[in-house]
Amino acid sequence: ETVHDWSVMSATASENRDPNRHHWLLEFLMEDPLREEASFIDCGRLCALQGAINQQEWRVVELFHRLLDYLTPKLSHPYQLLRERIGSVLTNIFALDLPTSGPRRTRGPLISQFVADIMPQLLCLYSLSDVTSSQPQPTTSNAEATVNQMEVDILSKSDVDLNEDGRSTAICLLKTMVKWVTNSVVRADYSAVPEFFGFLPLVCLMENYEADDELNKICTAMLAAMAQCLILPEFLPTALTAINEVAEMSSWSARATCLDFLQVFVFHNLPTISTQESLVSQVNSLVLRLLKDERVEVREKAGQVLSGLIHCGFVTDKETLMKELKRLASKQKKGGTNDIAKRHAGVLGLCAFISANPYDVIDPV
Fold first, then answer.
1. Is 246 exposed, middle or buried (0-12, 13-18, 19+ CB in 10 A)?
2. Fewest C-beta atoms under 10 Å: which of 155, 225, 262, 365?
3. Where is it located (predicted)?
4. Which of 97, 127, 146 is the C-terminal boundary of a domain?
């Protein structure tokens, strides 16, 4: 019960102090904090270090570089307690990497370089048993995807050797990254940076990974935090590109999760998105495409999202949409699965118009 006291002690000792005069304290705390076998002791030592550097911020940029180099090999630590603490420390390390219009945002560690180094180590998770072949195939629309923007070399799943140890290491690494992103989004006073959306496709997949309850919960928490985050206008295309990647995956559960995320994301950023016609058209096209999805679960979720968009006035050309939905609903049944899905999409779309106006009977109806 004294871990918190030691953290407060180190934070109070370094508060409003010149790190040049207290370098001995910082160096002492930096001295191999994860050297013990007991995770609780290591976590307490790391917590004391975090309390000290949290008070210095921009004054100890050199320590941030050293600490990041020290923690990078330990990001896939097997103990949950340490992974969560490391994710919290990463939030402090990258807190200075603020989105600005300048060529270089900080002298400290950069999020873009860090994510570019980590992302290739996570690609093997696409080949897990229940998400096999769920990685999006390269298309014209994906050419400027978030991962490509970070210049990450996308490896083929067939080139990744996923043994038991490799899978466990990759899952632990993903857990640490998810905790870091969640903490950064919740604690930051600014918009989520574009690099965070590079994790979105994989997190949407693993949010439905039933073999690990911890991974399910933290992925859900990350999606909830990012969906409610306000995004700067210049970052919206990157965010929607990442969402579109998930919508093109072969995993129907990932596509359904993508719709849940899109619904909250659009409503929290509605004023910003509504000012750009290209983004409005992209969102509407994505929802209407998933409304005709082969899986009934995805179609029903898309119908709910469409109803919300209509209710908020996000869909401007309602007459054209109504005609298209009527055409789909009246489509002759030929017995094919695709024809049934399109006809069901038309019915769900018409139901969306009705549920979007619960107290009125609109003219087309």
1. buried
2. 365
3. Nucleus speckle
4. 97
Query: Is residue 212 one of the residues assigned to a domain?
Result: no
Indicate whether 235 belongs to any domain.
no
Exposure of 98 by Cβ count < 10 A (0-12 exposed, 13-18 middle, 19+ buried)? middle
205 belongs to a structural domain: no
Would 144 be classed as within a structural domain?
no
Tens-place pLDDT, residues 141-153:
333 344 444 333 3
**DSSP H helical segments within 15-129, as ranges?**
23-30, 39-56, 61-71, 80-93, 111-122
Q: What is the pLDDT of residues 247-289, one digit of tens each?
A: 999 899 999 999 999 999 999 999 999 999 999 999 999 999 9
**DSSP H/E element including 346:** helix 337-356
Residue 39 sits in which domain range? 1-97
User: What is d(CA 51, CA 14) in angstroms, rounded to the nearest whole number?
Assistant: 9
Final residue belonging to a domain, choices 81, 97, 113: 97
R_g of the chain, CA atoms, integer Å: 23
Q: Indicate the DSSP class of residue 206.
A: H
> Structural domain tally of the chain?
2
CA distances in angstroms from 330 to 71, 135, 223, 278, listed in the order given:
60, 35, 37, 30
Distance CA 173, CA 189 (A): 26
Does the pTM of the predicted model rise above 0.90? Answer: no
